[in-house]
Specification:
heterodimer, A: alpha+beta, seven-stranded mixed sheet, B: alpha/beta, two-stranded antiparallel sheet, 6 helices, 11 strands
Chain lengths: ~750, ~250
């Protein structure tokens, strides 16, 4: 039977419902077409109007985010955000979720998540120079957790390592709320010349549309709709919708695309990601205000007998669509042949505004491109007050003060969320590219820009417990902490990308979380002058009606004018002074300490003074640029005690310290509880070390930036015998060998992975 | 064949060539060190060309030459460029294979033994300490024996194995140039992360002009990256090639 003679299924109410289109959405579809859609067209509408592609529930809120600034070249709406970094160069970056596929098939799900975000970056003409990922797993003792951790870490490693991008940072944490719905958020950063940025546009009627890369198979059909649905327990049946990655093919695409981009033949380019050929065709035409005519029989196939519907909706990986000047096609095809890539001219740009898909000359779909996005459904979904009861349940005096703070410190250092993540990042090549100035293990990674004196710093963060307890404040904290990490490395935060992971938007309480979280991000971004240049929303992160903690992961990119000034978190020299920046309050509510030691997740997250936070960042950047600090470390998860311990042992050697806390003057404050002092997570704090001779300059600088500064001790002792001593007006609190602390911290993760 | 090209070269210094296989991903790093850091004349060599462009030194960089879904380097050895690389080596020309390049040299038969999955089966990316076993080879001139160099490894298959006879020969002929060691240079299995036989990190061929090395000296050749411990290998090669152009010694 010839393909053209095949009959497509009839459009019935059941077929429409299977495609996830609501009644009014289907009505709008018919209105736009002026008729009943064909089966292929229904598939196209369904994919384009899925939550994943259309942002229909989030769009009204995302408008509140600040997206412009003097350094922003392209904000949200392109494949990735673009920021000017000087010397005629731009940084191109984005973060995206691959949660559902990774839960179903961890290795391939995570691998293709990395592949997708890399394509978003090099599609714009940027060579990827750094990757990160933010991973959230269920409870460490959940039966699936270790399987998922192993699969996802090796999936990320296998793809990134082979492709040749250094994976320089990220986060890995555990909480039972992710038992049935883990999070895999992948970030990539690339560098391009500012005058050679390419956009996803199909401009100029008559120009050619070229398909290049892997052949199209049946894999991943309806991935976008899957990502827009919550899990039921029979998710195993979804396995065929997960794609398989081929990093070698991606590497060929990278080199071929970048080579083609050096010439003048290319007009626009977009990768085939979610909703495959459908999404790229319509978006490229939509952006240019043109139409596109495609002859689908020309699309290279991996399988026989695929219907137009399947070809249009396949999510086979490592494919690109490009618009090439008429008459210059051979120039493009020659480059692809050089790299042994399959490429075909499959259509052309038209002036009628329609995406016309034909098979062997017979029309199978004809939809107006612009209305499909311009008139896509937008929902202002109902919201409800998202405050959980746990927020008000907290009573400080119900929390007993532990008798042995030293034992608590060791317990925290060994706990899954605070222990060393070397087990994870040693499986990622983090030095390929010969540009990694600061590798994983410090607050932020630093990657130099070869050929310039500059470097970029990057970090990804989110304390989802805080967002759950108070979505607005918690999300603002995520931005503040992430930017603080970048500033600790000596880099001025430039811009941010986000990956907003939430439960079902159809649940008003979830929508309330989302709305407040976006507002919190907006507030913090404005105050810290960090515009949002790209991002991604992932809804329906719930299983059997149990949503995850709201997790708006953010990644901040900052810039160092002089790469040599990059600062790491660990102490450097015996005899340096230890300085605490910022105030410590009675804030153990919502802390890691409260959760790990007392089994309570309750109360309000710490207060956040964004103006003070901004001052701290300016101080840190200026101090680093003047060479005044030997180390700088953000004090957040686990409080000052954990931060001080990390300062002692996270570098190449072991250094001791003698510190006295609680002596710093804070106006009108009573003496703090010992646990608040050691393990509380008050915001806007950092520990820096410096040569005693630089102390005066640092104090002046702190005054100028209105940053509370206090000398709390000194770096003392070196080597296996070094000790960390922490005292307070109440007496001796901690006196531990640094080597012992490092050992529990270092072994925490492998112990977790070895449990049976 | 290469002679006309050699005439256009200025200065008379050695010429380095970095081979680009489709999946090479450390090619640019090696090129950067040779050209920008050391100021050597450096050209690209494309895997489909049976032409080494008159280079005195050929570098096979790290990466995943053809995806390496099969055995690493098993396909790369059949590339047209490899015919010329082998001929160059047979003429006594210098060849340096780093990481995947080492794997390819082994597959091509220029070096003995094999590189198999790391002992603990995971990819390992970290700094290691290398003890220099022999000074004064074309790859280690000016690097004293016993010195400990720090540089990264990043591989899943770097576990060097060979039959006992080969190992004995390598040891006896002084062809083991670098071994994984503790920071103070003592041999300790705890620091032999991939489980290599005799803690072998880098070996020389019988004639002394071909070296394979699993760690990445090109990623540790500038102070900004933590140390310049890897630079000495390239400096040594540049000196050797300048003294004996074309590798004919």
């Amino acid at each position: 039977m010839s393909a053209a003679a095949r009959r497509e299924p009839e459009i019935t109410a059941a077929v429409v419902a299977e495609h996830g289109l609501k009644d009014d959405e289907y009505r709008l579809c018919r209105e736009i077409l002026g008729r009943v859609p064909t089966y292929t067209e229904l598939g196209i509408f369904s994919a384009m109007w899925s939550e994943h592609c259309s942002y229909k529930s989030s769009r009204v809120h995302l408008r509140k985010l600040p997206t412009t600034g003097p350094r922003v070249v392209h904000g949200p709406g392109e494949n990735a955000g673009v920021v000017d970094v000087g010397d005629g160069l731009v940084a191109v970056f984005k973060m995206e979720s691959h949660n559902h596929p990774s839960f179903i098939e961890p290795f391939q799900g995570a691998a293709t998540g990395v592949g997708g975000i890399l394509r978003d970056v090099f599609t714009m003409g940027a060579r990827p120079i750094a990757a990160m990922n933010s991973l959230r797993f269920g409870a460490e003792d959940h039966p699936r957790t270790r399987y998922l951790v192993s699969g996802i870490v090796s999936g990320i490693g296998s793809y990134g390592n082979s492709f040749g991008v250094p994976t320089v940072g990220g986060e890995t944490s555990f909480h039972p709320c992710y038992n049935g719905n883990i999070l895999v958020n992948a970030f990539a950063l690339g560098i391009a010349r500012r005058d050679r940025i390419f956009l996803g546009t199909a401009a100029g009627p008559g120009n050619s549309v070229i398909y290049v890369g892997s052949r199209t198979g049946r894999d991943g059909i309806h991935g976008a709709t899957m990502a827009s649905d919550s899990f039921e327990s029979e998710k195993e049946a979804r396995r065929p919708t997960v794609q398989v990655g081929d990093p070698f093919m991606e590497k060929l695409l990278l080199e071929a695309c970048l080579e083609l981009m050096q010439g003048e033949a290319l007009i626009g380019i977009q990768d085939l990601g979610a909703a495959g050929l459908t999404c790229s065709t319509l978006e490229m035409a939509g952006r240019a205000g043109t139409g596109v005519a495609i002859e689908i029989s020309k699309v290279p196939r991996r399988e026989e007998g695929m219907t137009p519907y399947e070809v249009m909706l396949s999510e086979s990986q490592e494919r690109m669509l490009m618009c090439v000047k008429r008459g210059r096609e051979e120039e493009a095809l020659r480059v692809f042949r050089k790299w042994d890539l399959d490429a075909e001219v499959i259509g052309e740009v038209t002036g009628d505004g329609f995406a016309r898909i034909s098979e062997d000359g017979r029309s199978v779909a004809s939809v107006p491109a612009a209305p499909l996005s311009d008139r896509a459904p937008v929902y202002e979904r109902p919201t409800a007050d998202p405050v959980p009861g746990a927020r008000n349940r907290f009573r400080l005096d119900a929390v007993p003060i532990p008798p042995d703070p030293g034992a608590v410190l060791a317990q925290l250092l060994a706990s899954p969320n605070l222990c060393s993540k070397e087990w994870v990042y040693r499986q990622y090549d983090h030095t390929v590219g010969a540009a990694s100035v600061v590798v994983p293990g410090s607050d932020a990674a630093v990657v130099r820009l070869i050929g310039t004196s500059r470097a970029l710093a990057l970090s990804a963060d989110c304390n989802s417990r805080w967002v759950w307890l108070d979505p607005g404040l918690g999300a603002a904290h995520a931005v503040a902490e992430c930017a603080r990490n970048v500033a600790c490395s000596g880099a001025m935060p430039l811009a941010l990308t986000d990956c907003l992971n939430f439960g079902s938007p159809e649940n008003p309480a979830i929508m309330g979380q989302f709305q407040r979280a976006v507002e919190g991000i907006a507030r913090a971004c404005l105050a810290l002058d960090v515009p949002v240049v790209s991002g991604n929303v992932s809804f329906y992160n719930e299983t059997d009606g149990r949503p995850i903690f709201p997790t708006p992961t953010v990644a901040v990119v900052g810039q160092l004018e002089d790469a040599r000034r990059a600062t790491t978190q660990w102490f450097k020299r015996d005899g340096d002074v230890v300085i605490l920046l910022g105030h410590t309050f009675e804030e153990i509510a919502g802390s890691e300490y409260l959760a790990v030691v007392h089994g309570r997740e309750e109360g309000s997250p710490p207060a956040l003074d964004l103006a003070g936070e901004a001052g701290l960042h300016r101080f840190l950047v200026e101090a680093a640029s003047l060479g005044l600090v030997a180390s700088a470390h953000d004090a957040s998860d686990g409080g000052l005690a954990v931060a001080l311990a990390e300062c002692c042992f996270s570098g190449p050697g072991l250094l001791g310290a003698d510190v006295r806390l609680g002596g710093e003057p804070v106006p009108g404050r009573r003496e703090l509880r010992v646990d608040s002092l050691l393990f509380g997570e008050s915001a806007s704090r950092a520990i820096v070390s410096a040569a005693p001779g630089d102390l005066r300059s640092l104090e002046y600088l702190a005054l100028a930036h209105r940053v509370p500064i206090a000398v709390v001790g000194s770096v003392r002792g070196e080597g296996p015998g070094a000790t960390l001593k922490i005292g307070s007006p109440a007496g001796k609190l901690v006196d531990a060998r640094v080597a012992d602390l490092r050992s529990v911290w270092e072994n925490g993760f492998s112990r977790l992975m070895a449990k049976r | 064949m290469a002679e006309p090209e050699r005439q256009v070269r200025g200065g008379g210094g050695p010429r380095f060539g970095v081979v680009v296989f489709p999946g090479s991903n450390c090619d640019r790093d090696a090129f950067h060190v040779l050209k920008d850091v050391l100021g050597q004349e450096t050209v690209w060599l494309w895997h489909k060309d049976a032409d080494i462009k008159g280079c005195d030194v050929v570098v096979l960089p790290g990466g995943f030459a053809h995806g390496d879904y099969l055995r690493c380097g098993a396909i790369a050895r059949f590339s047209p460029i490899m015919t010329e690389v082998v001929a160059h080596a047979k003429r006594g020309g210098y060849v340096l294979g780093i990481c995947n390049g080492f794997q390819i040299l082994v597959e091509a038969g220029l070096l003995p033994g094999a590189l198999i999955r790391n002992a603990r089966l995971q990819f390992i990316s970290r700094n290691v300490h290398l003890r220099v076993e022999r000074e004064g080879t074309p790859f280690t001139t000016g690097i004293p024996r016993g010195k400990v160099l720090t540089m990264p490894i990043a591989h899943g298959e770097g576990n060097y194995v060979a039959d006992p006879d080969t190992l004995r020969r390598l040891e006896g002929e002084g062809r083991i140039l670098f071994r994984y060691a503790a920071p103070d240079g003592t041999l300790d299995e705890a620091f032999n992360f991939n489980g290599s036989a005799n803690a072998i990190a880098g070996i020389l061929d019988a004639r002394g002009n071909v070296m394979g090395l699993m760690p990445h000296p090109e990623r540790m050749a500038e102070e900004i990256l933590g140390a310049a411990d890897g630079l000495g290998i390239f400096t040594s090669l540049a000196g050797a090639a300048a003294a004996a152009p074309g590798g004919r010694r």
